[in-house]
From TrEMBL:
Its EC number is 2.5.1.145. This is Phosphatidylglycerol--prolipoprotein diacylglyceryl transferase. The gene is lgt. InterPro entries: Lgt. One of its GO terms (molecular function) is phosphatidylglycerol-prolipoprotein diacylglyceryl transferase activity. One of its GO terms (cellular component) is plasma membrane. PROSITE patterns: LGT.
Amino acid sequence: MLAYPAIDPVALELGPLKIHWYGLTYLAGLAFAWWLARRECRKAGSVWREEWVDDLIFYAAIGIVLGGRLGYILFYGTDRLLSDPAWALRVWEGGMSFHGGLLGVIAAVYYLSTTRKVALGDLLDFVAPLAPIGLALGRLGNFIGQELWGRAATVPWAMVFPNDPMQLPRHPSQLYQFGLEGVTLFALVYWFTRQRRPRWAAAGLFSLGYGCLRFLAEFFREPDAHLGFQAFGWMTRGQILCIPMILLGLYLLWWAYSHKASPKKHG
């Protein structure tokens, strides 16, 4: 068994203001996406202009925060919302959903695609490799914050999280998700987009890849205490939410290679 590293979830205190590592990982993920987007814009055939990158990151950040919060409320917290409606506004108590954040980013991308006259599929393909490193950093934030830890385990690298009331050795599932949904997904999508692909292909691969990798990681993650296991007595809410992503990814890849529409460079 490995000892959990004693990392203070609060990175910096400025009087009454506490800056948590989790929030800093969000900023770092957005900074990386900004850097990579500008780099990709400089390549021949880019569908997005470099001077538009700031707008893309700004609206994506809004989509992540609003969509992530609304998604958590709808997917994980409807019972609590009904009993305590004001809880929805108490964001400092935590509660963000990747699937909700994804929908928020898609809404932001749709808005930008219409205002900049860029095909939605082209812009989603452009955004696909920008996201996984931010997901990886977010999972590191979960690990430092001692949240979303894994199921009880006997593996040599199991850890006892200090805030676990049961004090059981557990899978460090946040690190599994860091490696799967973050690093592995980034390597896969980034490699895939090094060559010209038909419209919707990269977006389809991202959806399929994330859905499959998250579905796998959920087998090691402790289900939400207020939800427990859902379908079939073993499937978690996160796995249920990944099924539409897997199906959508398969459909988009099929559509992309059936129609073979070429991305249109924005002039």
